[in-house]
Amino acid sequence: MLGNKRLQTTFFALACMLTVWAADKDVPLIQNVMGYESQSLNGAWNYIVDVQEEGYYDYRMNVSRWGFFQNAKPQKPEDLIEYDFDKSPTMQIPSDWNTQDEKLFFYEGTVWFYKKFGLTPSPSPVGEGSSKDKGERRLLYFGAVNYDAHVYVNGQHVGHHVGGFTPFNYDVTDLLKDGENTVIVKVDNKRHAEDVPTQIFDWWNYGGITRDVKLVSVPALYLEDYSFSLTPVPSPKSEGSKISIPKTREISFSAKLNRAEAGQQVTVSIPELKIEKTFTTDAEGNVQCSVFNVQSKKLQLWTPENPKLYQVKISVGASAVSDEIGFRTIETRDRQILLNGKPIFLKGISIHNEKPNGGGRANSVEDARTLLSWAQELGCNFVRLAHYPHHEEMVREAEKMGILVWSEIPVYWTIAWKNPQTYENAKNQLTDMIARDHNRANVIIWSIANETPHSPERDTFLGNLAQYARTLDNTRLISMAMEVTGASNYVNRLNDNMNKYVDVVSFNQYIGWYRDVNDAPKMKWEIPYNKPVIISEFGGGARYGLHGPKNQRWTEEFQENLYIENCAMLDKIEGLAGTTPWILKDFRSPRRVLPGVQDYYNRKGLFSDKGEKKKAFYVLKRWYEGK
Ligand code: GCB
């Protein structure tokens, strides 16, 4: 019997590939998913840990016809089915499996997730009749799944997504039925050298469906994307001279429908500004970049002090989506960063997307608020969301709180620069990061990489990526965290071919941690580019509550002294436009194994993993108060 089954498995593998894979429902990411009615699929999901991917491959490593995605149940007493989702344990989604099941703390591999759901009636934005009659669509949306996900609805494969920190959605309308439906997701977080991030990285490889899952109701014709931006006022050539603000300011608007339909009316209304404008789509279903004016004295610009957001409604036919939009400009002039035409010093902090108390992926509004309020307590007007796109609420809450954002993709350390698929993967993650957040006024920097080793192949990869980022969004600044090289014992020089592609040169430096703190006062910095400089990392580790002399590593006093010396040193860097020290809170990392001190945490936080403030917190706070 087993032998037969094995033969059949191989025989049917191809047929299965054809049927199961027939329905690729991948559609471009919808802009402002939060603006639509949706049915949450969060909550308890059954899961099966599948160490050898028995639920996917047969014993010849062909995709199996009897994969777990079938959600099979015995039909006859003699049927052999060796799994049962309904009897498997559950975990709350969204979450990472590492902190939900202690057996999975170090696990990296495949876990299957399964949820049954009935359809809730979708809202009827258009006329009478059932939503199906009116051609409404349902998009199955995942905020993020780390890392590799195959998604099945009612036994049909709807898509395959790679990349652990960006959202994706499938149009599953035609697969849904009245009554009970199932969604099954095979999640695999094994690390590979050619992935993005690559095989090694200094954070926990949290696996699972780590962000919200929802079934989004959209009309048959909807806005796949739209964007707003405020045109900068030509800035004066030199510092000190006045900007002359024109009587009216220009807002650019563009939009794209999900279908190439010409002649559709897209109306933008901003009641508070008494704006209502209608645009007509071209043959591609696009509203090409169009401009409308608003009186300068009526327009409150978005700033950290007054993070003004306007209620905006964008309608297509009888359906509409609402958003909150802030208007501001961001530019550079020589070594300055200009927000709304005025120089700003970015008082920042780096943050990992980890829960404020203990480890685990952050995924809620509360997580975002807690982390960001700590940053504000520190005196920050800026955060570096390292090293990958954080959950959407982090960016949205920061926008409401007046905190500027650096957002990054996980092109980190030793990426496989020569591999074309690796480049495509990085490009897709960049596309989706920008697609999700390009209407957030607080996002001012897209970062394309962190601490990458120099080589011609790396330059080609990153140069192309930077140019591509500009084609997607030319209204923000581009940067990447670079490294400095020791030009001589006490001279650090930034020498990176990527300088010409970035608007802001940023680099990480660890004087006081990976080099003697007593060198700090002697250090000289050579940054031979006429661009603003951000120190994207500096810092050192301390175990909260461990006290001792300032030269004793891991004590709070060591870290405190390191911050004192670094702040004094950084004050001497010409053109310093901001800093994002490493890091807000201790975070989990498998590389940090020192017992009794690290215990799998990177201890460079200004807050402990439980949210206690270390002494260095106050040093940075004081330094920022003086800025
Ligand atoms: C770095 C990395 C960051 C690490 C940090 C450290 O340069 O960018 O991801 O966690 O150093 O703690 O060494």
Report what the structure shows.
It is a single chain. The protein is an alpha+beta fold and 627 residues long. It has 7 helices and 36 strands. The strands form 9 sheets. An 8-stranded parallel beta barrel has the order 24-25-26-27-28-31-33-34, surrounded by 4 helices. A 6-stranded antiparallel sheet has the order 4-3-5-11-8-9, with no helix packed on it. Helix 4 links the parallel strand 26 (404-408) and strand 27 (443-450). Helix 2 (365-377) crosses helix 3 (392-401). The chain is globular and about 80 Å long. Residues 1-22 and 125-130 have low confidence and may be disordered. The structure holds (2S,3S,4S,5R)-3,4,5-trihydroxy-6-oxo-oxane-2-carboxylic acid. (2S,3S,4S,5R)-3,4,5-trihydroxy-6-oxo-oxane-2-carboxylic acid binds at residues 202, 387, 450-451, 508, 537, 582, 602, 604.
**Coarse morphology:** globular
Widest sheet, order of strands: 24-25-26-27-28-31-33-34
Largest sheet: 8 strands, parallel, barrel
How much strand? 25-35%
Bound molecules: (2S,3S,4S,5R)-3,4,5-trihydroxy-6-oxo-oxane-2-carboxylic acid
Class computed from helices, strands and strand pairing? alpha+beta
Unreliable stretches covering 5 or more consecutive residues: 1-22, 125-130
Please bin the fraction of helical residues.
Answer: 10-25%
- Compute the gyration radius: what is it? 26 Å
In angstroms, what separates the terminal alpha carbons? 76 Å
Q: Quick check: average pLDDT?
A: 93
Total of DSSP H or I helical runs spanning 4+ residues: 7
Number of DSSP strand runs: 36
